[in-house]
Amino acid sequence: MDFKAVRRCERAREYASLALDDELSQFEHALLRAHLEQCDGCRSYQVGLVVTTDRLRNASLERLSRPVALPRRQRVSFRGVQVGLVAALVVVAVGLGGVLSSLGSESVRPNVSLPNAGESQEMQDIRRERLQEIGFRPSAPGGLGVVDTI
User: Fold this and answer.
1) Are 128 and 145 within 8 A, CB to CB?
2) Per-residue pLDDT at 117
3) Which residues contact 101 (CB under 8 A, 6 or more apart)?
4) Which residue ranges of the chain lie beneath pLDDT 70?
5) pLDDT of residue 71
6) Helices 40-58, 26-38: inter-axial angle, 10-degree rounding
7) Those residues with Cβ within 8 angstroms of residue 124's Cβ, 6 or more apart along the chain or in another chain
8) How many CB atoms lie within 10 A of CB 138?
């Protein structure tokens, strides 16, 4: 039997069960009827399902000889795990803040190089004009320089 046929039978048996509780649409009823006309196995399954369901629904209720006792639900506390997780997050945040602050002073420097000694005068003048356009004023050699904000 191929996979599609097995899947059709599984669906038909599910529909047969749902039909007992009036939970099928008209279309699903039609699919079930069409399948049961062709499949002996599902047809006998449906007959057995109807008989068993009728017997259960029509059976008289009986009193139990002893009460049913469910085991008490044990509560599992994750408080220790939560506290440990929060502590670990704080350590990571502090460490990350320290790393970022130490890198931060270098990362905000403008990516600008000062004129080189081997650079032509014309290139130095162009570089100086561009730096003035963006508001960069070079400081002492090795300094950061200042960017004016408007």
Assistant:
1) no
2) 62
3) none
4) 1, 104-118, 135-150
5) 87
6) 120
7) 115
8) 14
Please name the amino acid found at residue 142: G
Distance CA 24, CA 95 (A): 60
Tell me the whole-structure pTM to 2 decimals.
0.43
Amino acid at 31: L
Q: Which two tokens stand for residue 116?
A: 């080189």
State the pLDDT at residue 57.
93
What residue has token string 């049913």?
68
What per-residue confidence (pLDDT) applies to 104? 61
3-state secondary structure the chain: CCHHHHHHHHHHHHHHHHHHCCCCCHHHHHHHHHHHHHCHHHHHHHHHHHHHHHHHHHCCCCCCCCCCCCCCCCCCCCHHHHHHHHHHHHHHHHHHHHHHHHHHHHHCCCCCCCCCCCCCHHHHHHHHHHHHHCCEECCCCCCCCEECCC
- Output the six-digit token pair for 16: 């047969």
* Tokens 């009193």, located at residue: 63
